[in-house]
Amino acid sequence: GALLVSERIDREELCGALSPCSLSFEIVVENPLELYSGAVEIQDINDNDPVFPSSQARLEISESVAAGARFPLESAQDPDVGINSLQTYQLSANPHFVLDVQTRVDGSKYAELVLEKELDREEQRELHLVLTALDGGSPPRSAHVQIHIDVVDANDNAPVFNQSTYKASVRENTPTGTLIARISAYDLDDGPNGDIIYSFSSHTPAKVRELFALDSATGELRVKGQLDYEETKLYEIYLQAKDKGAVPGVAHCKVLVEVVDVNDNAPEVTVTSVYSPVPEDAAPGTVVALLSVTDLDSHDNGSPPLSAVKQILVQVSDVNDNAPKSYQDSYDVYVLENNVPGIPILNVSATDPDLGRNAHLSYTLLQGDFTIGHIFSINRENGTLYLLTSLDHEDQVEFSMMVQVQDGGSPPLATNVSVSVFVTDLNDNAPTVLYPHPNTTATYTDIVAPGTPAGHMVTKVVAVDADAGYNAWISYTLLQATDPSLFSVGLHSGEIFTARQLREDEPPQHTLVILLKDHGEPVLSASATVSISVAEMVKEVFTDLTDVAPANDPRRHVTFYLILAVILVSAAFFITMLSLGIFKCYKWRQSKELFNSSRSTLYRTPGPFHHIDAVRGGFTPPNFYHQVYLTTDSHQSDLLCKKPFTSSPLGSRQSTMRNGEPGLYHQIVGTASRLPTPAE
pTM of this prediction? Predict the structure, then answer.
């Protein structure tokens, strides 16, 4: 039953200038059920210094002012209350002025300078005084302001108010612009010395200036801000009248404005819940809640009366008898390779009809494969699946994992959802030249005899692309040649043919630069340099190659290695052609089933309404379709089988990668070679 302080208490923040400052509370005691009210009074400590509105003040006082004249000074403010608030002012020693400290109705202090000895401008043109404000703390805190007094010649007559104190009352919530009081002063002087300007006194608090407006010409005091009886019941406003003389005369008065309460606060109902939730087997008459009502207005029964309605939600205790249920049993997600790490790719959604902790779901990634936890991560609270690393289609095409959805009941219930992530290809690999090898110092020279007719295949550029499908479809163009009219290259085969019949007077050496480009976006390219010799005898070519070889070539037995390489290439070519025939037969049978069905068998894809696509915006093509691409050269065909899609249940919440379809691409490149002669 101990009442403890849970955080630091600042009395000035809680109650401001209100004293005493108290906080009320209620205590509920059960068995038997009783309600007690209490209050804690927050006592003030001297933790705030008095503060003046400005560090300097300037006064202009005529030398003709008689002894006894009073001059109000700016008041200091101290948010503390009681003895710790502002208690007195002190003035530095001087021969002309003394300080008179006055007390307002609310107990606050303000100071006025009283002229004790008349001023003489010819003797002293200005005075410098220091006003000190002190509170009643122990030790006391203080603040200082510099007072600069200019002694000038001024009017003979100062304005005079027709009364020193005005009283008025105004209802709270009065509209702005409402007239409260009209003050009036007169000045016996003529001309500008008799024209009067009304204004707030210098020690009028800023809060008062925000709530009230004074017409400087007519002296009408009007409502400017929103008055609130519950905040302040009485305002003490200090005003002054000043003429327009060179040394203006000043008169002062005060206006007491009483704020009248109106019924502008509805009752506030506080509900202290005891049995919530209520067990479903609770007996009739069981106490559900305790009610307390407060109203910030004064008295009761306002006119018109205000009322309050409080709804009480009675909850029934729940048991954990429902396992989480996912919208789908499995998800297929398609992600473009080279993704940015940390992107969301899927949101696994599930529901639980239970209440409270029994319906609080958490999502966990079951790491059947050790690498899954390093590549994927799931948000335990909302089921969002994130990619932690950048994926590579050439490294791995598919990832399979299991997501467990578990509620917070005791004991908890769980459901498992399977997720398959397919990595779709991007054109991120340029073609790679296999022959002629670009990173070797050896010179590969193909030989063609003079008189060779047009259309004869001389050699072939062999290249591969690590990408898949259309991104790996390579085209070959002749970029540079010793004689561009002599040779041509197959667009899709890389085979180099004679464009015309070779003459006897052809240059003996020809260098061709072949540009290889894939069909991705953006297009990536590479180049290959091919050397061709025009000669009747192999010996001549071999002599030419010996001439252009480095003088100190450390490699020996070149002929043996060349013969071995040709044999290996020929064997590989034979195996490749045999595999190609078997593969073509298999693909022919498979293509019949592929084009007769509505979905691809190359990837596992669930049927309609059990498939999700984590690509752009969660929007997918509305139907299934297939596309077949065929090459136009080299007697080869590239088969592109695009997968079917179904609608995505993720909607706009699905983070997207790109609207694209996964596909499986195959490109078979045939190679041609010639057998070496014994001399080679």
Answer: 0.36
